[in-house]
């Protein structure tokens, strides 16, 4: 292990002070609203699926009284159970947001925890907005300090997400910088989420944001009443960064430009219903298809060159389960060409077994592109080559992903995403009402 870098300031105390005093401008508040529209778009379908429905059933006898809503059954519950269930639900359909530079899905965890605390305590909407922005800020900055080596073994959403949830709930509870620091410190020692847990057919992946939201809420609630954490836990020789990253934490990166616009103003919102490491390949196929007008039956082969996690996580040539298909570049590329896109319908049993998709999958290959790999994690490109049956060879370099900060989804596109994912399940009246609250409302949504 390399020698620990010299840390001249305590990153935890710096982040806690920043979180406690971070201004929330109208511009930032609008980006919080965008994140909440996206979160509810993902939550609504996920709340009707395992594992969230099964977690709710497992906890049925323990959930008890409270004023936070569990969206699996619309029952009221305590903060911790609502945070757990809703955060898991928001991550289930793999449509939730990403912070590119930290590799973290901040929305599922942070909004799950912050909204539960805000509903339970009846705080103003402004407090909820601040809590969400603070949670994104803390988690993503810690994530930037340990990325990319952290991602080799750890699922960032389950680790740094715990600390973001703690900061968010601490904000709802009115914690000052000192108690904010203890909330983050307590959360740091409860982090978890192993890469191995989502390399197969298990339901573990949504457990990671669920546990992070619940553990972060517990940490903040405990700090608010005086429980103390180890304030050197992020940068200490036996602390979080030392244990989970090869370079023991790049705090110069994590703490850089604290006066810049908050992290929540630079979030990726997903434009495809699969692992984000597959996105640039799908975006490249979209460009090539539009330029050359070919269909699935015209393709002899597809080859994608990508960065490390694209190859390590998404090279799954024969996926069988829904979970596996969401993380298979071969499946998603073939489904994109046959179905026209990778949305929720791509994971219906009849589509996962579609002979046309299965046949095309066998002609999709993936390799590590060294040049592209060096750009990760700040850039997520792909180099795609499509060979057609008539002999033409089409190539495209996709420099970024639709939905990333440099190619963002508009407010209208986020509304369309909500309408696609949530409206069929909520019905028109309820969907319209919720959208109005999220974009224009002045009170905490329920």
Structural class: alpha+beta
Shape: globular
SSE pattern, N- to C-terminal: HHHEEHHHHHHHHHEHHHHHEHEEHHH
The total count of helices amounts to 21
Overall domain count:
2
Highest CATH level, the class of the largest domain: Mainly Alpha
N→C terminal distance: 48 Å
Number of DSSP strand runs: 6
Uncertain ranges: 1-6
Please state the average pLDDT score.
Answer: 96
CATH superfamily of the largest domain: 2-methylcitrate dehydratase PrpD
The main sheet comes to: 4 strands, mixed
% residues in beta strands: 5-15%
CATH topology of the largest domain: 2-methylcitrate dehydratase PrpD
- Overall helicity: 40-55%
Strand order of the largest sheet: 4-3-5-6
Which value, in Å, is the CA radius of gyration?
Answer: 21 Å
CATH architecture of the largest domain: Orthogonal Bundle
Q: What's this entry about, in short?
A:
The chain is of the alpha+beta class and 446 residues long.
Describe this structure in words.
The chain is an alpha+beta fold. The chain folds into two domains: 256 residues, 2-methylcitrate dehydratase PrpD (Orthogonal Bundle); 123 residues, 2-methylcitrate dehydratase PrpD (60s Ribosomal Protein L30, Chain: A, 2-Layer Sandwich), CATH 3.30.1330. Helix content is 52%, strand content 7%. It is built from 21 helices and six strands. Strands 4-3-5-6 form a four-stranded mixed beta sheet. Helix 7 runs parallel beside helix 9. The radius of gyration is 21 Å and the shape is globular. The N and C termini lie far apart (48 Å).
Annotate the secondary structure layout:
Layout: H1 11-21, H2 26-46, H3 52-58, E1 68-70, E2 75-77, H4 79-92, H5 106-121, H6 125-146, H7 156-172, H8 177-188, H9 204-224, H10 240-244, H11 251-254, H12 279-292, E3 299-306, H13 308-314, H14 322-326, H15 329-339, H16 349-352, H17 355-361, E4 364-368, H18 370-375, E5 382-388, E6 393-398, H19 411-421, H20 423-426, H21 428-440
Parallel strand pairs: 3-4
Antiparallel strand pairs: 1-2, 3-5, 5-6
């Amino acid at each position: 292990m390399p020698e620990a870098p010299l840390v001249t300031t305590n990153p935890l105390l710096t982040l806690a002070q920043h979180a406690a005093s971070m201004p929330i401008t109208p511009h930032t508040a609008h980006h919080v609203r965008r994140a909440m529209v996206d979160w509810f778009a993902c939550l609504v379908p996920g709340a009707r699926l395992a594992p969230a429905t099964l977690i709710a059933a497992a906890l049925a006898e323990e959930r008890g009284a409270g004023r936070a809503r569990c969206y699996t059954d619309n029952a009221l519950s305590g903060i911790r159970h609502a945070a757990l269930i809703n955060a898991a639900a928001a991550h289930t359909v793999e449509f939730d947001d990403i912070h590119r530079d930290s590799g973290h899905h901040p929305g599922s965890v942070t909004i799950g925890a912050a909204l539960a605390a805000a509903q339970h305590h009846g705080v103003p909407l402004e407090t909820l907005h601040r809590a969400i922005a603070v949670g994104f800020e803390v988690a993503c900055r810690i994530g930037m300090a340990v990325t990319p080596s952290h991602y080799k073994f750890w699922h960032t959403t389950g680790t740094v997400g715990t600390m973001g949830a703690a900061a968010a709930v601490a904000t709802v509870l009115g914690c000052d910088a000192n108690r904010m620091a203890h909330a983050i410190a307590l959360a740091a020692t409860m982090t978890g989420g192993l890469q191995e847990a989502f390399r197969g057919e298990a339901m573990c992946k949504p457990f990671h944001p669920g546990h992070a939201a619940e553990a972060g809420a517990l940490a903040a609630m405990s700090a608010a009443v005086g429980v103390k954490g180890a304030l050197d836990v992020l940068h200490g020789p036996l602390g979080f960064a030392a244990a989970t990253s090869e370079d023991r934490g790049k705090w110069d990166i994590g703490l850089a430009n604290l006066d810049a616009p908050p992290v929540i103003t630079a979030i990726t919102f997903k434009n495809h219903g699969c692992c984000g490491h597959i996105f640039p390949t799908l975006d490249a196929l979209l460009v090539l298809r539009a330029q050359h007008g070919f269909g699935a039956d015209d393709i002899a082969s597809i080859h994608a060159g990508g960065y490390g996690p694209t190859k390590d996580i998404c090279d799954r040539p024969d996926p069988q389960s829904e979970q596996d298909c969401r993380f298979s570049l071969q499946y998603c590329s073939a489904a994109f060409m046959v179905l026209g896109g990778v949305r929720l319908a791509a994971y219906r049993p009849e589509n996962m077994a579609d002979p046309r998709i299965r046949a095309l999958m066998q002609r999709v290959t993936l390799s590590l592109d060294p040049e592209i790999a060096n750009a990760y994690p700040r850039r997520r490109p792909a180099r795609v080559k499509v060979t057609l049956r008539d002999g033409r060879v089409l190539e495209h370099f996709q420099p970024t992903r639709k939905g990333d900060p440099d190619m963002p989804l508009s407010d209208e596109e986020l509304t369309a995403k909500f309408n696609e994912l949530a409206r069929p399940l909520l019905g028109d009246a309820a969907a319209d009402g919720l959208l109005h609250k999220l974009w224009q409302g002045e009170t905490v949504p329920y």
